[in-house]
Every structure is written in structure tokens, then in C-alpha cells.
Write a structure and sequence with these properties.
alpha+beta; L-fuculose-1-phosphate Aldolase; eight-stranded mixed β-sheet; 5 helices; 21% strand
Length: 185
């Protein structure tokens, strides 16, 4: 895909997530592969609603800015790197976009279920829940799934492209919303 168009699409996606309350302020990270092992990503510290295509940075699989300047600290980039590396075999569906965000219904559902290791949202496979700093557990969970909840950080979702990543986020958040509503009723 043309890098200019992908930059525009990424900013639109971030704006949609912000409008829906799934990212707040400068939190959350959304990225998409622009070239083999090169990713456009939301930069650290900039309010997501104010992002322009020129604000996005291009990083390698290690989170280093390939155009010079500040990259993404490994602690923030690690979940994205793990999910991209989990499906890098061309024989599989290669993951090319990811988001780590805080959808309110997922976060509320998780808060109401202390100690759970997965969220069964009725979408087929349950979404694994791992501790935010447990990198081996995250890598293990991502061998079988393209989404996971990092306790204290949010929902990590990846897919073959940006549109499919957004669709997955919406589906997961809607399922969590329904579960919360039926529990109250």
C-alpha cells in the first residue's frame, strides 16, 4: 500500500478509536506495516485526536525510528513486536496491523473478574488475559490468538490489515458491552 494513503488511514483509525472512547489523551498505540518489517506507528506523547499523517513515525521490528529521531521505548513496543513475530510465516495469515487500546467495556469487564486468565465473550475462542509485564505468557497466548488483554494496559488486537483490526476491536468491545448489560439486568 502507498505510504501516504496508509498514514491517512492510520490517522482516521486513531480518530475513530478516540471518538469511541477506546483511547484517551496520548494513550494507546496503533500501527500498521508499511514495508516488510517496517511499521507506521503512533508516536509516544502526542494526543491521539490531534495526530496528522506527518506525526506518525516509521519503526523497525525493534521499535527504532528508521527515519531518525525518537523511536518507541521497548516496554511500549514489546506487545506489538510479539504479536507481529507470532505470525510472520508467509504460509500463515501474516499480521500487518495492531492496536493496544483501553476499550471501556473490556476494561470494566476485566475489573469485575479478578484473577481470570481468559475472557469468554461468546465469539468462539476466549480472549487470553495476561499480566502486563509477563512477556513469556503474552508470547505463549499469541501463538494461538490474535488478541489478548494485558491486565493494566488494555486490549491488544492484530489482523492482516488495519480495517480488520478495527473490526475485531469493535466485535470484542460489543461482546463485552453485551455481557456487562446482561449481568446488570
Amino acid at each position: 500500500m502507498d505510504e501516504t494513503r496508509l498514514r491517512e488511514q492510520l490517522c482516521q483509525a486513531v480518530g475513530q478509536l478516540w471518538t469511541r472512547g477506546m483511547i484517551v489523551g496520548a494513550d494507546g498505540m496503533v500501527c500498521a506495516e508499511v514495508h516488510r518489517r517496517r511499521y507506521l506507528a503512533t508516536p509516544v506523547g502526542l494526543r491521539r485526536i490531534d495526530l496528522t499523517p506527518n506525526d506518525l513515525i516509521c519503526v523497525d521490528i525493534g521499535g527504532e525510528n528508521v527515519q531518525g529521531g525518537e523511536g518507541i521505548p521497548i516496554k511500549l513496543w514489546q506487545p506489538h513486536r510479539d504479536i507481529f513475530q507470532s505470525r510472520s510465516d508467509p504460509a500463515d495469515d501474516v499480521l500487518r496491523a495492531s492496536a493496544l487500546i483501553e476499550p471501556p467495556h473490556i476494561m470494566a469487564l476485566l475489573a469485575s473478574r479478578d484473577g481470570v486468565t481468559e475472557l469468554d465473550l461468546g465469539l468462539g475462542a476466549a480472549v487470553p488475559v495476561v499480566e502486563q509485564d509477563d512477556d513469556p505468557a503474552l508470547r505463549q497466548a499469541l501463538q494461538d490468538a490474535t488478541e489478548a488483554v494485558l491486565r493494566g494496559r488494555g486490549l491488544l488486537v492484530a489482523s492482516t490489515d488495519l480495517a480488520q483490526t478495527l473490526n475485531r476491536i469493535e466485535r470484542i468491545e460489543m461482546a463485552a458491552s453485551i455481557q456487562l448489560a446482561t449481568r446488570r439486568g
